[in-house]
Amino acid sequence: MTALCFVDADVLIYARDPEEPSKQDRAKEWLKHLWREGLGRTSTQVLSEFYVNVTRKLAAPVTQEDAWQEVKSFLAWNPHPVDAALLARAREIEQRWRLSWWDSMVVAAAQLQGCALLLTEDLQDGTAYGGVTVRSPFTLDVREPVPAYAVAPAARPRHRERGRPRKEEHIRG
To answer: What is the CATH number of the domain that holds 24?
Structure first.
């Protein structure tokens, strides 16, 4: 696999959760692969969700210090910040595909980082959102041949923005 891969919080959490050993093993395997190949990407939203869940919601919580060290390590993946571009793209995704706001932000961050794959179990496996294909890390094996995923550019709006026409449109029209 040579495509950039966005990793959602559930994958990071399972890698730290011994309650589900098969999912923990698979999540660790994916993370190891993505580190080795330099293909992993994520977002600040995902890292925040990871931190809260592993320090507060696991049966055997991770210490805040250990969780913070892990978050710091993922900063090497240049996590996409929650910014105006992310919010605008998330709104488009929410309206187009009727996803939850939080899922829309994850898909938007994957798109904005040029990722072809989104590893998560929170969305339907195999669904494509504007060039980003969702795959479950628990059904897609790291060693499985991956089709050539291509990142499609964001679609341009077909209609002009609402509001007062620009001067050049008004003069011509």
So the answer is: 3.40.50.1010
